[in-house]
Design a protein that fits this description.
Helix content: 40-55%
Shape: globular
Distance between the termini: 43 Å
Structural class: alpha/beta
Order of helices and strands: HEHEHEHEHEEHHHE
Radius of gyration: 18 Å
Number of domains: 1
CATH topology: Rossmann fold
Largest sheet: 7 strands, mixed
Length: 244
């Protein structure tokens, strides 16, 4: 059977990130934040397969958070079958958020912030309940670089989402094993594998700074095809990819 060059490349990048940044250790219990999008599905597939290898020995679970007051049509049966096929136990939890009323002198928190906050809270709570040491997120290289650009443009600081982040207030470490993978590769692979796209209909979704920065980043790569690697090297040299 002919090997798939794209699959081999993604596996190699995943393995390199795990080794280079020390993302997994013997005895780890890793909780995957599984949204149902292409990135978290690939993360589930790769971590599930890796857990079958003798060293390091670790356990993988996944959590899918449903927001009851946001009409996302998630097929939890599909996610459950996908996880089972990749030797990952799935937990489905439900939460909600309430939009804050505007008050004099105080800035109203956006709905997207409140939704993300409640999702994160559920994930952290379950991780501690299950005794997990690591939470794995499906952010890829493009996500990390776009975040770095956003921080520079809008906050005046050079920082991004670390590939490995040890939490200060709880015994958990955030890991991003897809950090060396490009979004275009993940998108193509998801189509090759027939990943089922989750239907999404959020009344609060709108064009954001992140979407605009993604457009800017594409222009940068047209100007210099090596732009992503130059920016990545800058983050690495400045020690922004690991926080322990």
């Amino acid at each position: 059977m002919k090997s798939n060059p794209l699959e081999l490349r993604l596996k190699k990048q995943f393995a390199k990130a795990v080794t280079e940044f020390g993302l997994l250790a013997d005895g780890d219990h890793v909780l995957i934040a599984l949204s149902g999008g292409k990135d978290s599905l690939l993360l589930t597939e790769l971590l599930g397969r890796r857990s079958l290898i003798h060293r390091p020995r670790f356990k993988v679970s996944a959590v899918h958070v449903r927001m009851e007051n946001i009409p996302y049509e998630t097929d939890t049966a599909y996610l459950s079958d996908f996880c089972a096929a990749n030797h990952v136990q799935l937990h489905v939890v439900t939460t909600r958020f309430d939009a804050e009323p505007s008050t004099a002198g105080q800035r109203r928190k956006p709905e997207c912030f409140l939704c993300a906050w409640q999702r994160r809270k559920k994930i952290f709570d379950l991780a501690q309940t299950l005794g997990c040491q690591k939470i794995a997120l499906g952010h890829h290289m493009d996500d990390i670089l776009h975040t770095a650009l956003m921080n520079e443009l809008f906050e005046g600081r050079f920082a991004s989402m670390p590939v490995k982040l040890k939490m200060q207030k709880m015994p958990l470490t955030i890991i991003r094993p897809l950090a060396l993978c490009c979004e275009s590769d993940i998108l193509l692979y998801s189509r090759q594998q027939g990943y089922r796209q989750q239907k999404k209909s959020c009344p609060f979704e709108r064009k954001t700074h992140r979407a605009q920065v993604a457009d800017l980043f594409r222009q940068m790569e047209e100007l210099n095809p090596e732009a992503r690697y130059s920016l990545w090297h800058a983050l690495e040299t400045a020690g922004k990819l690991v926080e322990e």
